[in-house]
Amino acid sequence: MTVQQFTDALTHHFPQLREDLRPGVRPAGLAEAERHLGQPLPPAVRDTYLACDGQLDVVPGVLLGLRWLPLDDVVREYATWLDLAGEDTGLDSRPPGAVRPVTFSPGWLPFASDGGGNGLAVDLQPGPAGTAGQVITFGPDETTRLVLASSLPAFLGWVADQIEAGRVTVEGNDVRLNGATSFLDAARTLV
Fold first, then answer.
1. According to DSSP H, which parts of 38-70 are helical?
2. Of 10, 11, 133, 157, which has fewest CB within 10 angstroms of its CB?
3. Taking the CA of residue 186 as centre, how many other CA atoms within 13 Å lie in the half-sphere pointing to its CB?
4. Does domain 3-190 bear CATH number 1.10.10.10?
């Protein structure tokens, strides 16, 4: 799966959302982000951001209502969340053991946000039952961390499949999957 499948689905079904996608980041921008993050980006994340650097506007969020963060915003979100990192025994994951029970991990790269502190991240330090590079939910309202896809390209491919299957609607600034008002709420029933 590539970002192209996702952008093609937007072009065909929701061109108004496609217009909000930014062109790919330049290699120098990737190197700068990696310097700030203190770690290299996995090839799948690098390739995705070389093809498309998130979205321009906050609303509507092109990722089923969530804003796809440009790489500069990924770095800012990472720095903000890193200050809040720590163990939290009240957290679990689905599947069990796939995501470490922490408020935030230095191995998480936040790439999508609901604007209220919750979002999606690429997990580079998964739990014992997880896989490096998996896409997970996180944030104060996400007490059960969900694994949504094996990688960022796989997640974008899944979103494209939902669009192509007619499960996504867009009305003004409201983007919904199967009629749910929040993708993160809907995800709890999908996994």
1. 43-51
2. 11
3. 16
4. no
